[in-house]
Write a structure and sequence with these properties.
single chain, mainly alpha, MetI-like fold, 11 helices, 75% helix
């Protein structure tokens, strides 16, 4: 730690506990406790049960979880591809061109996600590109929302790259495509890995734009959680929320375990 004195370390841990526990840990613990309960009329929940989780991994709930996973994986891969390509292009442009691309890709983050959902709905509800009522309009909206994070992550990584590797490869006669595929992208793999995890997590939890776009046969889990709690099924919604959170964490842990040659350089 940056704090070397014992008193300073204890003070730092105390401030962390005071801020972390009530703001982050306690709400999650409340959801976890509610997911195992059938009643909560006092200070603590009562009626312990695991039936909510039995229902959360069957039927409509399981289908909604699968829908969220497919949407998040597809949107993350598309966002990573588009964001990486745009970051590489921006790095080759002059200052004004780079600023324009930065503003263009950050625009979906600068406005509420419900505005992005409405824009996608209006834009793709008429021919020649008619996506309204299909799963692809949901995937498209998620891709637009998370591409900015992939772009920013890769752009920052490109700025930190040592140009010596590319110059050495070019001096040995390597073509630009070879330098990109065999030198630059391998060095960017750790950042691509982190960007993919961030895009996946954001897509798994996206609700506002999804509520405006999802068709009846493509119901993501966050929408199901919202509808369950809106009907008053708080304990069922809590179990679904825990399943969503656990699934996201498992995927992120799996992604974080991926090791590349560039990770050890």
């Amino acid at each position: 730690m940056l704090v070397h004195s014992r008193t300073g370390r204890w003070t730092t841990w105390a401030v962390f506990a005071v801020l972390f526990v009530p703001l982050f840990a306690l709400p999650l613990l409340v959801i976890l406790a509610a997911s195992f309960s059938t009643n909560w009329s006092g200070a603590f929940p009562s009626g312990p049960t695991a039936e909510h989780y039995t229902a959360a991994v069957r039927g409509e709930s399981l289908q909604a979880l699968t829908t969220s996973l497919v949407t998040a994986v597809t949107a993350s891969l598309l966002a990573l591809t588009i964001g990486t390509w745009a970051a590489l292009v921006a790095n080759s442009l002059r200052k004004n061109g780079r600023r324009f691309l930065d503003a263009l890709f950050m625009l979906p983050v600068a406005v509420p996600s419900v505005v992005v959902g409405l824009a996608v709905l209006v834009a793709f509800s008429q021919p020649p590109v008619l996506l309204n009522g299909t799963r692809w309009i949901v995937i498209l909206a998620h891709t637009i929302l998370v591409t900015a994070f992939a772009y920013q992550s890769v752009s920052a990584a490109i700025l930190r790259l040592d140009p010596m590797y590319e110059q050495a490869a070019a001096s040995l006669g390597a073509r630009p495509a070879y330098v990109l595929l065999r030198v630059k992208l391998p060095l960017l793999l750790p950042s691509l890995n982190a960007a993919a995890g961030l895009c996946f997590a954001l897509s798994m939890g996206e609700l506002s734009a999804t509520m405006m776009l999802y068709p009846p046969d493509w119901l993501p889990l966050p929408v199901l959680i919202f509808t369950a709690t809106d009907r008053g099924s708080l304990f069922t919604g809590s179990a679904l929320a825990v399943v969503l959170m656990a699934t996201t964490l498992i995927v992120l842990l799996a992604v974080s375990r991926i090791r590349t040659k560039a990770s050890y350089r």
